[in-house]
TrEMBL record:
Organism: Streptomyces ficellus
One example GO MF annotation: lyase activity
Record domain FPG-type: where: 243-277
Reactions listed under catalytic activity: Hydrolysis of DNA containing ring-opened 7-methylguanine residues, releasing 2,6-diamino-4-hydroxy-5-(N-methyl)formamidopyrimidine
Name the UniProt record assigns to this protein: Fpg/Nei family DNA glycosylase
Length: 292
């Protein structure tokens, strides 16, 4: 799943390649991709892209033109298996709806543009066309951006105050902190040397500081690694930079212990026992159910 660093890199790429260009047509291909109907997607035809922003894991493509002085926002959430593919030359002809990965195409008047694609059978990629980003529920409920200039250690501590859940779940909650998903929450907790199951209410002042610093450092470094990387190479760049997530069975790059995994129905987390749990393996929920 693209998270804050990858979406920020896509924002940067589109800011360089899309802003100032005219949209010829936006073509939904998958029935499930477009989540709004007013204004219609045809309202983008003939508008010019004025800016590309990021709101948590959402890309925000702003466009305006004749008859649209207030502007439009194309909000894109790539979900777990979605991606954006830039094309210097788009294929001619209209794309055919079907079972392929193509979900939506944005064609520019110069012949270039981008495709939104989604792998797999579970379709969660979402596109909203609105006048105000706050009209999208997923945007309206977003918590603060963890890399925002004003998001300091005290602001982070204030968010955690009163939480009564495990730290892994808190970090992934978009209404608490925007942009962190499964992969980078694993990475942050590894840097902070904390168990993903540690209750937030048990954090000491020193641990809160360590967690905040690990979050800022991990995300900042990931953004810097992705800087200037072409859209098509961002997935590989993300994977190569991860130290524990997705590396079950490999040695921890810090201590050499074997990275372990806890599996859930549709996801998993990875951690280092030596670095994070005092050498004790965490119970694998999937295996525990099989043994009952």
């Amino acid at each position: 799943m693209p998270e804050l660093p990858e979406v920020e890199a896509l924002r940067e790429f589109l800011d360089e390649n899309l802003v100032g260009k005219e949209i010829a047509r936006a073509l939904p291909v998958a029935v499930s991709v477009l989540k709004t109907y007013d204004p219609p997607v045809s309202a983008l035809d003939g508008t010019t892209v004025t800016a590309v922003g990021r709101r948590g894991k959402f890309l925000d493509v702003e466009a305006s033109g004749p008859g649209r002085p207030d502007g439009l926002h194309l909000l894109i959430h790539l979900a777990r298996a979605g991606w954006l593919q830039w094309r210097d030359v788009l294929p001619t002809g209209l794309p055919r709806p079907g079972k392929g990965p193509l979900a939506l195409r944005v064609a520019l008047t110069g012949g270039d543009g981008f495709d939104l694609t989604e792998a797999g059978t579970t379709k969660r990629l979402a596109v909203h066309l609105v006048h105000d980003p706050a009209d999208v529920p997923g945007v309206a409920r977003l918590g603060p951006d963890p890399l925002a200039d004003g998001f300091d250690r005290n602001a982070f501590a204030a968010l955690l105050a009163g939480e009564r859940r495990q730290i892994k779940g808190a970090l992934r909650d978009q209404s608490l902190i925007a942009g962190i998903g499964n992969a980078y929450s694993d990475e942050i907790l590894h840097v902070a040397r904390m168990s993903p199951f540690k209750p937030v209410q048990n954090l000491t002042e020193e641990e809160t500081t360590a967690l905040y610093e690990a979050m800022r450092t991990t995300l900042t470094e990931a953004v810097e690694r992705s800087h200037g990387v072409a859209a098509g190479r961002l997935k590989a760049e993300k994977k190569s930079g991860l130290r524990v997530h997705g590396r079950t069975g490999e040695p921890c790059p810090v201590c050499g212990d074997t990275i372990r995994e806890v599996s859930y129905r549709d996801s998993s987390l990875q951690y280092c026992p030596t670095c994070q749990t005092g050498g004790k393996p965490l119970a694998d929920r999937r295996l525990s159910r099989l043994l009952k």
